[in-house]
Amino acid sequence: MTDRHASAHWEGDGKTGKGTITTQSSVLDNNPYGFNTRFENEPGTNPEELIAAAHASCFTMALAFQLQEAGLKATALDTKSVVTLVKDGDGFKVTKSALTLTAKIPGIDQAKFDELTGNAKTGCPISKVLNAEITLQATLDQG
C-alpha cells in the first residue's frame, strides 16, 4: 500500500477567497488557487487541472507497463488529458476526461497498440477512481 498526501489552505469566501495547495513532494508548494484560477484562467492551479495531470501521467505510466509486459518499449508516449467541468444543479461536476495519446513504439502493430492502450485506459488507478466518461484518442506514429 502506498499513501500520498496533499494539503489545501483557504481564506475568505468562495468567490473572492484565496487558497494554496501543497503536495507531499513539494512539487506544488503553497501554489495559489481560487475562483479566478478555476474559472477565469488567471495564474495558479485548480482541481480540474490537477486531475488532468494525474490522469495523463497515470495512463501513460500504465501504458509503459503494458508495453513492458508485452516485450515492447516506447520511444515516446505523449498524453494530454482534458477534464470537463460542468454546472450540476447548485454546484459543478467533472463529467469527462478526454485522453489524447501520440505514441512512438517500435515493433508494434495497430491491433496490439489498440489492445494495450485500451488496457491502460481502463486499468490505470486514476481511471478507476474517476466517476466520469473517459475517452481515448490514440495515434501510433510510425515515423
Which structural category do the helix and sheet elements fall into?
alpha+beta
The major pleated sheet works out as: 3 strands, antiparallel
Kindly report the average pLDDT value.
96
- From N to C, what is the helix and strand string? EEEHHEEHHE
In percent terms, what proportion of residues is strand?
25-35%
Shape: elongated
CATH topology of the largest domain: GMP Synthetase, Chain A, domain 3
Number of domains: 2
Q: Spans of 5+ residues with little confidence (pLDDT < 50)?
A: none
- By CATH, the architecture of the largest domain is named 2-Layer Sandwich
Q: Helix amount, in percent? A: 25-40%
Number of helices: 4
Report the count of strand segments.
Answer: 6
Alpha carbon gap, first and last residue: 40 Å
Rg estimate, integer Å? 18 Å
In which order are the strands of the major sheet placed? 1-2-3
Q: Assign the CATH class of the largest domain.
A: Alpha Beta
Write the CATH homologous superfamily of the largest domain.
K homology (KH) domain
